[in-house]
Amino acid sequence: MTEQKEQAPVALARPTMILSGISKSYGAVSALSDVSIELLPGEVHALLGENGAGKSTLMGVASGTTQPDTGTVEVGGDVISALDPAMAGRLGIAIVHQHPAVLPDLTVAENIRVAVPREHLQFAGDEASAMRQLLSDVGSTAHLEDRVAGLSVAQKHLLELAKALALRPKLLILDEPTAPLGQDAVDLLFDRVRTAARSGTAVVYITHRLAEVRELADRVTVLRDGRNRGTVAVGDVTDDELLAMIVGRELEYTFPPKHRIREDERPVLDVRGLTGDGFSDVSFSAGRGEIIGIAGVVGNGQEGLLRALAGLSRFDGDVRIGEDDFSVRRLHDSSAYMPADRHHEGLMMTMSVRENAAVAGLERFRIGRFVSRRREAELVGAELTGLNVKAPSMEAPVTALSGGNQQKVVMARALLSQPAILLADEPTQGVDVGARSEIYRILREVSGAGVPVVVASSDAKELEGLCDRVIVLSRGHVVATLSGEEVTEERMVHAAVASTTLKKEDQEREASSARFSSLRRRLEGDYAPVAILAAVMVVLAAYIYSQNDRYFLPFNITSVTLLVSALGFIALGQTIALMVGGIDLSVGPLAGFLVVVGSFFLLDESSGATMVLGLLLMLGAAALTGAVNGSLIRFGKFTAVAATLATYIALQGFSFLLRDRPEGLISRSVTDVITYTVGPVPVAFILLVLIAVAMEYLLRRSRWGMQLRAVGSNEESSRRLGVATTRTVVLAFVAVSLFTFLGALVLLAQLGIGDPAQGVGYTLSSITAVVLGGTSLLGGRGSFIGTLLGAGLIVQLLNATTFLGLTQTWQYIFQGGLIVIAAVVYSQIRGTRRSVAH
């Protein structure tokens, strides 16, 4: 029974937010033109409009992620001159984005900690219990230690919703929140929205589903072409009137006429006994012109079945299309798959609209052995026009399009490939009502042309209106097959929720899955490489000692740990650069340059004040180098490689300008202090270990560490969460150079002289140590402890060549081999999350 929404007495309340005269343009494209809207406490305010109408842009202004060209933002009676995400959070504004602002390399718990202040996690005794309750309240089954990259699209949305509700906001903005959710999760979401509204929260609800507006909203505002087309009470307007406001015309129909099923017709698609990842013993068939629907509660094998039919995962069973049997490879080569997660699987976000649409149909554009650009432009343009894709141009980056228009590009690519079978997972997710009717029409035309069409959707009403046959999955099994008049929303929902009995094999599979998930979390953790490195180092040390019993003599321990200290400090700095998704090629020349600078001041004849001045100059030069690197990257828009390569060359040149040959003997008193030992272990090494442990703690437990990893994991999501991304990156590169300063001090003691040619090799060695330690070259994850062990292993290999009587060539062979092995092992371990997510 649908709960009736309660009309809140909000007419006399002070608005939570007023947006007045908001305009925003991107180049020549006007996204918003003089839009005004009032959001009242205790009210659910629906915001409707076609894709590209300006809804998300307007809410970007409301949440501080987008700065308007003109207009004012008033919150609680105060005009806010420059609203940003951090300020929005302090003002009690929370937003659930259409594309969740989650950080894939962080765990679920860490994602919550980045977004939710600690004071909001004190209601259940401890933070972990509070976070589990937040997830449970929105129906999420995610484990706190799961990597977000391994979550399903629906679970990412639920995590986003949990973070927003945890803030107990004054204004809650929900942008297409139900698009990937099953009916149970939708019902739970609606209950939470009603509860929030009753407590006085103003709720903005963006959707393309008019039924949800009827069930949930008090008032509705319609945007079209970036302008406000009216605000009315939901009870005072009909669906036809709303549709006319949204599209500017009357729609003739939503769903095209269905195909008349003929049981004696030879099937164009015959699936028998299909078993694969997440589903078992699935059978169905389809005649020419029929559309097959896949229904069921989200996560019951629908996605796995579609991926198998697309040839993206292995299966047992038979698939016959027309007169031919199709293997996994043949399905992969001849099917068109429209994934639900268009951002990660459906689109290449750095490429243009044309390139995304054309990539699967290149054979159609060939003239001889070459692709005809004219033919490509004609066919792609015609397809995009037929789908009414709104884009600045075909050469515009696909990121410039709204979510719904991006979905249309995915469909255009599928159609241009002229597939043997078309598979659509949530094909209208985030698509406006006008475009939906176009997509339904095209799917019907494709099916009528003899191409089997299989559609999975969490919207049972959509399957009812579109599909000729529907199979309902529960726990990967077919629990109902409906056709003709049987295809109704009620029957689908009943079949999905009524089948609750677990078969014995399902129970065994779920128990095994739970055990595997626990193991998987450990293997995907940042400390798996640490354990691997430690084991390798112990085995290598044992082998060397078995060949040469002088390996553990105090002199060798002192020499090795001193070498590790110099490389270790520099590598710890390099870890910070990689953590934010960058790299610092200048660390080696910087270490050499600092040694040269020190060689002018840290001499036997120098006074104490002169030595202190020299150390301060070295420290200042390091900090300045880091600031230059960070500024070139953030303000000069250089890539990290280009910026630090330029600094690399400059520092090397400065070193040779200061000294063209080795000169300036370092005072013995200075080197004695730096190389002072406790037993056989240098104090510098002890300090290195302590700092590495402290940095590891800060990385996991401090807000600075969370923000550092957040920026490297997904900078745009971090910005939406209120992280000061520019400051974080600039300070990260300053920190890199400060760690290099510490490494340079140890190097200075080792060399004992200002040599301009020294230090350069530390660039590659530091990167090698970081990679061996398990830090991702793409940013977002890693470990300072792993880096420390990586540095130790590199020095151990160098030392091994001496004790085993090998040439130095073997050192590089060992290093190269370990890097390759580490890359393969780590990628395989971490790659399991992708298969689990699917």
What does this structure look like?
Among the domains are: 269-498, 3-Layer(aba) Sandwich (Rossmann fold); 527-831, ABC transporter involved in vitamin B12 uptake, BtuC. The longest helix is centred in the last third of the chain and has 29 residues, at 809-837. Helices cover 50% and strands 16% of the residues. The protein has 31 helices and 26 strands. The protein is globular, with a radius of gyration of 31 Å. The strands form seven sheets. A six-stranded mixed sheet has the order 6-7-8-3-9-10, sandwiched between helices. It has 838 residues and is α/β, with parallel strands linked by helices.
Q: What is the mean predicted local confidence, pLDDT? A: 86
CATH class of the domain at 527-831: Mainly Alpha
Q: State the total count of DSSP E strands.
A: 26
Radius of gyration: 31 Å
**Unreliable runs:** 7-11, 500-507, 509-514, 832-838
Give me the side-by-side strand order of the main sheet. 6-7-8-3-9-10
What's the CATH topology label of the domain at 527-831?
A: ABC transporter involved in vitamin B12 uptake, BtuC
- How would the global form be characterised? globular
Reported for the largest beta sheet, the result is: 6 strands, mixed
Helix content: 40-55%
Distance linking N and C termini: 33 Å
CATH architect. name of the domain at 527-831: Orthogonal Bundle
Tally of contiguous helical segments: 31
What is the gist of this entry?
The chain is of the alpha/beta class. 50% of the residues lie in helices and 16% in strands. α19 (528-547) packs parallel to α30 (784-803) and α20 packs antiparallel against α30.
